[in-house]
Fold Cadherin domain-containing protein.
Amino acid sequence: IEEATGIIRTRAWLDREKVAHYHLVLRATDSSITEPKSTTTKLHITVIDENDNAPSFSQDNYIIYITDPTNPGDFVFGMEALDPDESINGRVTYYQSGRDADKFYINQETGVIKASQALTGDKVYELELRAKDLGIEAKW
């Protein structure tokens, strides 16, 4: 706290994911030498989120076994990517690409993957899954 102005500054960067709220008790004292007077007040600080994290999956690769046959619309896999940011910065959407992307449908909001055509359990299918947050300057 700057003594002359009362401006409060931080000594280090604040990170909402580590500490989201601060509660301080401030005291101001006048400069009287003989009878200084003082008062106190409480200050509550809420750290606003910044889009400083990208969504991440719990593992880099997934191996999924499907039943034979798997029909169009059948559930294949449910995935989840986590983003510790708050609000829209932490909301995740899902995308797919890769050699066999046309054989699957992904719900962009839930991450649930379903077959978009008949599949066989005898074949190996490759699908690349990505997650992106909805924040400004979105993170992948």
Notes: The chain has a mean pLDDT of 93. Residues 7 and 61 are 50 Å apart (CA to CA).
